[in-house]
Automatic annotation (TrEMBL):
Name of the featured protein: HTH-type transcriptional repressor CsiR
Superkingdom to which the source organism belongs: Bacteria
InterPro entries membership: GntR_C (IPR011711), TF_FadR/GntR_C (IPR008920), Tscrpt_reg_HTH_GntR (IPR000524), WH-like_DNA-bd_sf (IPR036388), WH_DNA-bd_sf (IPR036390)
Domain (HTH gntR-type): residue spans on this chain: 3-70
Pfam families to which the protein is assigned, alphabetical: FCD (PF07729), GntR (PF00392)
SMART domains: FCD, HTH_GNTR
Single GO MF descriptor: DNA binding
SUPFAM superfamilies, sorted: GntR ligand-binding domain-like, Winged helix' DNA-binding domain
Source organism: Stieleria varia
Keywords of the record: DNA-binding, Transcription, Transcription regulation
Length: 233
């Protein structure tokens, strides 16, 4: 049974991993995390065991917990899992979502649009760390609210796991510039409009296209980063 302090550490670290605070390959030290949370290192170690079981970190002898790095194949597999779940979920949401659920999805979309507008009006047109974290958080919420609208709890657990892992592994894949943020919002608007108009076919198609586009962007950036590393050797 997980202790209260271990649960606190688990929830804190999991949210920070999803937000991209810890880069893939980086070490997470038990002691400093415990000091931040006002607890000992023991429950932090217990929390790391839970996160390792979920695939977020690896427990390495003499080092402790290290944030996992993802291979190209694993990244594709995560997107394939999403592609199997989320278009179906969007179709079901178009049939089952109630007014309160639609309102929640709509509010999350507006939050993303506001962040995209802020970055678009900035001098650099590139999101800083906090805006990126806020955008990722809203993006995850948008997708999870749609899955939750199906009422299928097994699907919710699977969808949350694949979405969360993808965000941890993809923290290095690209910077959020204004164009990418606006493109994401346009995709989400199409998905939302289809769900709100009770059109399951359009909702499924829009979600499938959105996920396929996300995979293409992610792989393109991954390949660009690898090519850049070779060029600098």
């Amino acid at each position: 049974m997980t202790s209260t302090h271990a649960q606190l550490a688990y929830e804190n670290l999991r949210s920070r991993l999803i937000a991209g605070e810890f880069q893939p390959g980086s070490r997470i030290r038990y002691g400093p995390i415990g000091q931040e949370l006002g607890i000992s290192a023991t429950p932090v170690r217990e929390a790391m065991g839970l996160l390792a079981n979920e695939g977020f970190v690896e427990l390495v002898p003499q080092l402790g917990a290290v944030v996992r790095s993802v291979s190209r194949t694993e990244l594709i597999e995560l997107y394939e899992m999403r592609e199997a779940i989320e278009p179906y979920a969007a179709a079901k949401a178009a049939q089952r979502a109630g007014r309160s659920q639609l309102d929640a999805i709509g509010r999350t979309l507006k939050r993303m649009q506001a962040l995209a507008t802020r970055v678009d009006h900035s001098k650099t047109k590139v999101a800083g760390r906090q805006v990126t974290a806020d955008f990722e958080k809203a993006d995850l919420a948008f997708h999870m609210l749609i899955i939750e609208a199906t009422g299928n709890q097994t699907m919710v657990r699977s969808g949350e796991s694949s979405n969360a892992l993808m965000r941890v592994f993809a923290t290095e894949r690209h910077a959020y510039d204004a164009e990418l943020m606006k493109s994401t919002c346009r995709d989400h608007q199409q998905i939302f409009d289809a769900i709100a108009s009770n059109n399951p076919v359009a909702a499924s198609d829009a979600m499938q296209q959105h996920i396929a586009s996300g995979l293409a962007i992610t792989l393109d950036n991954l390949d660009s980063q690898r090519n850049h590393r070779w060029e600098t050797l």
